């Protein structure tokens, strides 16, 4: 079960943040913003630089969208996922939930990515604006309610 789900834009501004516990909302937002450094480090390492006859050639390696565990504390684990358009999805899970496997986290991110893609198909949504869609919120709530 996810305790917090966040969607951040390419410029790292929050588009959607939902926390399961209102008392932990500030701590969850801190964890979301702390994970941005790790996301930046993992995504920038996918670029390689080759020097060929005094010309710099940057080669983009194919990378996995799912970044895995960004960091873990004694209370929570933070997982990350970055789309090709640099939209960041972050899921925070309680560390006490040891029954949650990596495969299930990947499924949660796929479902979240699909919901975001459907949101972008809505002609009334402007990309980059905060997400206020009830349908998107229901899908996120379903991810947080899973056990």
Strand coverage percent: 25-35%
Q: Major sheet, described briefly?
A: 5 strands, antiparallel
Which radius of gyration do the C-alpha atoms yield? 16 Å
Largest sheet, spatial ordering of strands: 2-1-7-6-5
Shape: globular
Keywords: ER-Golgi transport, Transport
Organism: Tigriopus californicus (Marine copepod)
Subcellular location: Cytoplasm, Perinuclear region
Pfam family, one: Sedlin_N
Describe the structure.
InterPro entries: Longin-like_dom_sf, Sedlin, TRAPPC2L. Keywords: ER-Golgi transport, Transport. It is a single chain. The protein is α+β, with helices and mostly antiparallel strands. It has helices spanning 25-44, 102-120, 134-145; strands at 2-8, 14-19, 47-52, 55-60, 66-72, 76-82, 88-94. Helix 2 packs antiparallel against helix 3. It is globular, with a radius of gyration of 16 Å.
Record the SSE blueprint.
Elements: E1 2-8, E2 14-19, H1 25-44, E3 47-52, E4 55-60, E5 66-72, E6 76-82, E7 88-94, H2 102-120, H3 134-145
Antiparallel strand pairs: 1-2, 1-7, 3-4, 5-6, 6-7
Summary tags:
single chain; 147 residues; alpha+beta; Beta-Lactamase; five-stranded antiparallel beta sheet; two-stranded antiparallel sheet; 31% strand; transport; Longin-like_dom_sf; ER-Golgi transport; TRAPPC2L
């Amino acid at each position: 079960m996810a305790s917090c789900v966040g969607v951040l834009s390419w410029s790292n501004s929050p588009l959607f943040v939902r926390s399961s516990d209102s008392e932990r909302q500030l701590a969850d937002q801190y964890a979301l913003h702390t994970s941005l450094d790790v996301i930046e480090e993992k995504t920038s390492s996918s670029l390689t630089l080759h020097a060929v006859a005094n010309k710099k050639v940057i080669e983009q390696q194919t990378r996995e969208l799912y970044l895995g565990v960004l960091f873990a504390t004694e209370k929570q684990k933070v997982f990350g996922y970055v789309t090709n358009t640099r939209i960041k999805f972050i899921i925070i899970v309680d560390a006490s939930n040891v029954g949650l496997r990596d495969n299930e986290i990947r499924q949660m991110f796929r479902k979240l990515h699909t919901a975001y893609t459907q949101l972008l198909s809505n002609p009334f949504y402007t990309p980059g604006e905060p997400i206020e869609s009830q349908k998107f919120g229901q899908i996120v709530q379903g991810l947080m309610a899973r056990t």
